[in-house]
Amino acid sequence: MRVALAAQGELAEYYLWRPAAPDGVNDLYTGRVDAVLPALAGCFVALGPDLSGFLPDSAGGRGQSVGTYLTVRVTRSPQGGKGPRLAVQPGVAPGESPGLIKRGPGPLIELAQAHGRAEILVDDYELMASLRPALEGRLRHQADAFAPFEDEAAALAEPTAALPHGARLHIPPAPAATLLDIDAAAASAMAPLALNQSLIPALCRQIVLRNLSGALLIDFAGLKSAQRAKLAEPLKAALALDPLKPRLLGFSHHGFAELTRPRIRPALHELT
């Protein structure tokens, strides 16, 4: 199922949701500490017969002992061959053996909770009925609810994106980092600094819509090294609007703007 947050007639956030195969974010588990690893500043926790996760010291792992039972919440879904990231969940007693206690709400309910006054348009009566207990009074059936966003949603599956003034964004992902390469293309006649400054809001919007996370490297178009620092403040201002609050770490020797964005759910290109 497609889940979108629309603001002023435009896509603001976009997710693919598979209720039959949930991503695990915010699931609650009874876990058993199986290994304490000081070198990794955390411990591995068994969540069931075939599932384990990593509990960082900073999220409640410090001081835990092998064999301890505790209740944990999934803070990052399994991705890239790694198990889920965990945090201790206070106030919920663990069970007698590792296993699922409660599924997380999923992206639709989480968006609804974050935007408590927003109306929720649903194009499927069966889904609407299943959501009614949690979202009573906010649901309205509209068969063509997604129609205004079909083209843009389809474009999000592509590794390139159109930017203002005819510029293009190329997004080749890799396991360690994602590069966002801006090509001036039809906008080559514009002054590079002015062009890149004008592209920042659209660039950051693509990061949110595609849920690009982890280490991000932005290669701005045609900038001299002395001009790069002038992009720092407008880039920080645009990133501040992101619900996950990415951080600009600076500019590398190769001229890339280096960002880090919390990796909670898989990026869109990993789901399509």
Layout of secondary structure:
Elements: E1 2-7, E2 10-16, E3 28-37, E4 42-48, E5 51-56, E6 69-76, E7 85-88, E8 99-102, H1 106-114, E9 120-122, H2 125-135, E10 139-141, H3 150-155, E11 160-162, E12 168-170, E13 178-183, H4 192-210, E14 214-219, H5 225-228, H6 232-239, E15 247-251, E16 257-261
Parallel strand pairs: 9-10, 13-14
Antiparallel strand pairs: 1-2, 3-4, 3-6, 3-8, 4-5, 6-7, 11-12, 12-13, 14-16, 15-16
Mean pLDDT: 94
Number of helices: 6
**Hey, roughly how much beta strand do the residues contain?**
25-35%
What is the SS-derived class?
Answer: alpha+beta
Radius of gyration: 21 Å
- Distance between the amino and carboxyl termini: 12 Å
In terms of per-residue confidence, which ranges show pLDDT below 50 for 5 or more consecutive residues? Answer: none
Could you characterize what this model shows?
The protein has 272 residues and is of the alpha+beta class. It is 21% helix and 32% strand. The protein contains six helices and 16 strands. The strands form four sheets. Strands 3, 4, 5, 6, 7 and 8 form a six-stranded antiparallel β-sheet that branches. Strands 11-12-13-14-16-15 form a six-stranded mixed β-sheet, covered by helices on one side. A two-stranded antiparallel ribbon has the order 1-2. A hairpin with a 2-residue loop joins β1 (2-7) and β2. α4 packs parallel to α6 (232-239). It is flat, with a radius of gyration of 21 Å. It starts with a strand and ends in an 11-residue tail after the last strand. The mean pLDDT is 94.
